[in-house]
């Protein structure tokens, strides 16, 4: 997974003490804008060089603000971009909009299916590397069951992840969320699993909850706070206070009594 990073650090070049601003991100079709004060000496402006992916740009930087034109490099959407801004001592330029290089949730789903207990999906139009969050509909809500890093570059890509099936109908989807909290969702895929429901040995327990076979589970207290969650055929509850607790397991929602 790649994030947008903004680095400011200093270096020595002979007797000149200066600094650099470095931004790593992905091209999203927009340019960067820089506030560029006068140099401390009063002669010229603060920034003296801008490099994009190791190449010095031809942007007009002798101004109190300027644009770094990324379109001239003919980047594809989602292609990695590194920007290095070098400036003189005693002054500090500022990048106004570094967020334009952040990855965006923009993928399109070409196909999604469940095969051999694996969720398989194919995408294009990714615009920067973001994780695909795999969700399963359980207990009247969408539950995150895994994540796979997206490739984030142009082209068609296929991903897969093992999934745990419960009895009855299983529904899955994938999503991405970017820095603007924009969510992109795939279509849902549903598959029927013909197997007996998981059962609970007793609804009144002292030491352990015992299931008929391994299952995903969640335990909540009466205030709705999660106490335990996981995947197993038993759960130790020795440390819990006496009383009622909410229990989600397999495709069921119930309550048990800790004695």
How would you characterize the overall build of this protein?
The chain has 259 residues and is mainly beta. It folds into 3 domains: 5-101, Jelly Rolls, CATH 2.60.120; 108-193, Immunoglobulin-like, CATH 2.60.40.770; 204-258, no CATH class. The protein is built from no helices and 21 strands. Strand 11 and strand 12 form a beta hairpin.
Give descriptors for this structure:
259 residues, mainly beta, Jelly Rolls, Immunoglobulin-like, 3 domains, five-stranded antiparallel β-sheet, 0% helix, 55% strand, elongated
How would you summarize the topology of this molecule?
Layout (H helix, E strand, L loop, with lengths): L4 E9 L2 E11 L5 E4 L11 E6 L2 E2 L8 E4 L11 E8 L6 E2 L12 E8 L2 E7 L6 E8 L2 E9 L7 E6 L5 E10 L5 E3 L3 E5 L10 E2 L2 E13 L5 E11 L6 E7 L2 E7 L1
Parallel strand pairs: 17-21
Antiparallel strand pairs: 1-2, 2-7, 3-6, 3-8, 4-5, 4-7, 9-10, 10-13, 11-12, 11-14, 14-15, 14-16, 18-19, 18-20, 20-21
């Amino acid at each position: 997974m790649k994030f947008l990073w903004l680095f400011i650090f200093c270096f020595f070049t002979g007797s000149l003490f200066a600094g650099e601003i470095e931004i790593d991100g992905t091209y999203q079709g927009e340019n960067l804008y820089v506030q560029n004060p006068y140099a401390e000496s009063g002669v010229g402006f603060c920034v003296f060089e801008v490099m994009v992916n190791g190449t010095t740009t031809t942007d007009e930087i002798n101004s109190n603000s300027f644009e770094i034109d990324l379109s001239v490099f003919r980047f594809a959407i989602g292609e990695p971009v590194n920007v290095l801004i070098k400036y003189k001592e005693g002054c500090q330029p500022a990048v106004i909009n570094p967020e334009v290089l952040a990855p965006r949730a923009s993928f399109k789903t070409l196909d999604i299916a469940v095969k051999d207990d694996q969720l398989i999906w194919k995408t294009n139009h990714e615009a920067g590397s973001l994780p695909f969050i795999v969700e399963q509909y359980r207990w009247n809500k969408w539950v995150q069951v895994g994540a796979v890093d997206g490739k984030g570059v142009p082209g068609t890509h296929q991903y897969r992840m093992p999934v745990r099936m419960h009895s009855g109908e299983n529904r899955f989807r994938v999503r991405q969320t970017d820095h603007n909290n924009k969510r992109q969702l795939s279509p849902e895929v549903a598959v029927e699993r013909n197997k007996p429901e998981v059962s609970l040995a007793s609804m009144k327990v002292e030491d352990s909850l015992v299931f008929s076979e391994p299952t995903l589970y969640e335990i909540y207290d009466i205030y709705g706070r999660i106490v335990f969650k996981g995947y197993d055929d038993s759960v130790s509850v020795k440390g819990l206070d006496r009383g009622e607790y909410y229990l989600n397991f397999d495709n069921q929602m119930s309550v048990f009594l800790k004695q």
